[in-house]
Amino acid sequence: MSTSPSASASGTVPAAITPPKREITLISHSMLFYWWPIWVIGFILALMTYFEDHRLAHVPSGTTVSKLRDEEKSTFYELGIRKGSETKSLLDAIEATKNPGSTRGTFPTRVSQKAWMGPVFCVILLLTVVITNVPLRGLWSFLVLLMMVVIALIISLIPNGWDQLLTAIGHLHIYINMAGYLFIATVVFILWAVSVFIFDQRTYLVVTPGQIRVCEHVGASIRTFDTMGMTFEKQRDDLFRHWLLGFFSGDLIVRTAGAERETIRLPNVLWIGWRLEEVQNLLREKATVPTA
What we know:
Blueprint: E1 24-27, H1 36-52, E2 64-70, E3 75-80, H2 88-97, H3 117-131, H4 139-157, H5 161-168, H6 178-199, E4 204-208, E5 211-215, E6 223-226, E7 231-234, H7 239-245, E8 250-255, E9 263-269, H8 272-284
Antiparallel strand pairs: 1-4, 2-3, 4-5, 5-6, 7-8, 8-9
């Protein structure tokens, strides 16, 4: 008499193997997440200033410069300064020349001579602040983006267009030294990293077949909801915030069903489009109960 290969020696059928529990975690980020261009551009401009290796010297008003002579490797100039108006920068430079062994250098402050670097950094800083505080969704964001691109192209097509524009706006020469770029970029990077990798991780929604767990802000209790009748809605995109700065992030709205309906809002969820597809596929699954 033969026995079924699936039956055990005692004649009982082994219990079905429970599949591993699946879950999807959606993390809601704060607005500081979108501030990454500030520290990225700040570090880039600091490196450019460092390798350009130009120095800053403060001279009083009315200073005159005259060329003395040329030698094989050096050109000598003479500064004409009104008595008693010497700046600290010049006095430190004179003191440094008396001590050739000093490692501080005659003019230690590094600053780029490129006039566009300071205004570009300030524009990026101000645009980031505006984008993260003024939402422009749908058609409005597209129109504003198109207008900015058209204006930038027109200025670029004009020979020396950007230099002429800066000169026309009251000779707008904004110079930031290397330490200024580094200070702003480092502080913003530390705030960004602490927010993204520590505090934002405490604001999340975990989806499993049949239920969700939600923690809406740091220090809040974790609440559990049944997914029966629950709806997930992705708000219309803000092209500036969600596409340009947010790696296709989006704002998620979850509405629960039942006697006590609630609306849960999770702003700034990364890659919200394909993450929602994963959530919808997971919600279609039904938890299986092993039978003996």
